[in-house]
Amino acid sequence: MIALGCDHGGYSLMQEVIAYLEQQNIAYENFGTYSQESCDYPVFAKKVAHAVAEGKCEKGILICGTGIGISITANKIKGIRAALCGDCFSAKATREHNDANILALGARVTGPGLALEIVKVFLETPFSKEPRHVKRIAQIEQ
Ligand code: RB5
Questions:
Q1: Which DSSP state fits 140?
Q2: What is the Å distance from ligand 1's center to 7 Cα?
Q3: Is the shortest distance between the CB of 44 and ligand 1 below 6 Å?
Q4: pTM of the predicted structure, to 2 decimals
Q5: Atom 10 of ligand 1: nearest residue by CA position
Q6: Any ligand 1 atom below 6 A from CB of 7
Q7: Residue 82 lies in domain
Q8: How do the residues of the chain divide into helix, strand and coil, expressed in percent and rounded to 5?
Q9: CA–CA dist 47, 85 (Å, integer)
Q10: Would residue 64 show up in a list of annotated catalytic residues for this protein?
Q11: CATH code of residue 80
Q12: How many domains does the chain have?
């Protein structure tokens, strides 16, 4: 189950992400926002981060205008490793090296075609489980 959250800046791109997930038969829970009306990204970042941190959802996708505010907020929640990605190399590396559990996207920065490729790579790339990465991830929480 993938937890989804965005603000007004990310709403339009999120509709494209939802269409992609439905086309791929990937289950998701949408924590909002549900319109383009101005809203506060921390509200949705926290909903998604808690759903992932508590194990209700395996991963999350968060979108705001830049991806910055929403990822900063998500990373305040213990156990969350939210990665703001604007390219496929970073999306692959953050899954393999950081076991990132939330992907953040900036809808005003990254075009929809690239953003959907990033989503695909992020969801399909497993954590490497290499001991050096396991050790470093444990150090994040210490
Ligand atoms: C909203 O205008 C904008 O500040 C928000 O989407 C995001 O970019 C914050 O980091």
A1: H
A2: 8
A3: no
A4: 0.98
A5: 69
A6: yes
A7: 2-141
A8: 50, 15, 35
A9: 20
A10: yes
A11: 3.40.1400.10
A12: 1
